[in-house]
Amino acid sequence: MGRGSAPGTVDTDVQGIAAVHWNPVRRDADGTARSVDNFGDLIGPLVVAGMLDRLAVTTSAAVRRRLLSVGSVLHFAREGDVVWGSGINGKEKVASSSLPPIDVRAVRGPATRRRLRAQGIDVPPVFGDPALLLPLFMPDLVEIARAEPTRDVTIIPNFHDVEPAGEDSRVIDPRRPIAEVLRAIAGSRLIVGSSLHGVVVAEAFGRPARVVRSRSEHYLKYFDYYAGTGRYDVQFAADVSEAIALGGVERGTYDLKGLQDAFPIDLWTGGDPSTPLSGSVPQETDDRIAAGEKFAEGQMGSGTTG
Fold first, then answer.
1. What is the reported pLDDT for 291?
2. Distance (Å, rounded) from C-alpha 40 to C-alpha 197?
3. pLDDT tens for residues 62-79?
4. Dihedral (C-alpha) 228, 232, 233, 236: value to the nearest 10 degrees?
5. Which residues contact 120 (CB under 8 A, 6 or more apart)?
6. What spatial distance separates the first Cα and last Cα of the chain, rounded to whole Å?
7. 111 and 227 in contact (C-beta within 8 Å)?
8. Which of 41, 60, 120, 281 sits in a 20 to 30 Å window from 157, CA-based?
9. Tell me, what DSSP letter sits at residue 113?
10. How far apart are CA 57 and CA 106, in angstroms?
């Protein structure tokens, strides 16, 4: 694992391919430099390695390439990069600036697809955050999720929204060890908060979840994920109390087969790319996507923290 070429990124080697993810170094209050280790940003390399294991790929890639998967990391893309499930970061000016030529196999949702196609980039209508595939590789968490919850409500804020430690035992800091955070999610009756991957992982394991409006994050990534599962008008809660009262969002349409089929196994095997022409999530018009975005923006806005 090594620092990526763009500030804040890390290239994790997965059998010869660089799995690009975001993990900046920040200074603690005492001045010590540490990686943020936000759990959602660490999921990408885990899923890529899990897919290779599931597909029994044991060879290393003959040509080193970069693969962008989990996260709003498309603004870090370089020419020739492969994209599988990544999304646009609404706080970056990707929509108004040109991305280099990239090889897109799947994206997080239709808002990302619409922006990339506006730049002339070919994007198949295959949607989904690869974190939705975690149950395929983590049977221990599947067992936890099938059992009676050991926690009632778990609150997972975006790491920008984390407040100084208090007395609320329901709060899980997303910078805790990833295994600890995943176990807490799988074992909870309800997950609420501004951590997108708190919601994605909860839904992956069949636990209900609700987004709480973030003070710092852009609405786009939340809308993009929900729209990629066929949900265009999800209500974000104003606070934790409202999230608990609303309960989990109705489950979406998850195109897990399309997402798996779009996995770029050819990077390791040297074969031809095999991307499905379309996924199973119902397609919407650009007008419907724009209307959904406007509804989401009206609830949350564009964020303030970088």
1. 82
2. 5
3. 888 999 999 999 999 999
4. 20
5. none
6. 24
7. yes
8. 281
9. H
10. 20
Cα–Cα dist 127/228, whole Å: 5
Q: What is the pLDDT of residues 151-182, one digit of tens each?
A: 999 999 987 767 765 678 899 999 999 999 99
Displacement of CA 136 from its chain's centroid (Å): 16
Q: How far is CA 189 from CA 11, 193, 236, in A?
A: 35, 14, 19
Backbone φ, ψ for residue 107 (5° rounding): -130, 170
Length of the chain: 306
The residue assigned the tokens 């100084």 is: 164
Locus of tokens 């599931």: 54
pTM for the full predicted model: 0.90
* Nearest by Cα to 265 from 255, 275, 277: 275
Q: Which tokens go with 121?
A: 């980039």
Distance CA 121, CA 98 (A): 10
Residue 68 structure tokens? 């962008």
Ranges of H-type helices in the chain: 43-54, 110-118, 139-146, 178-186, 196-204, 220-227, 240-246, 256-261, 266-269, 286-300
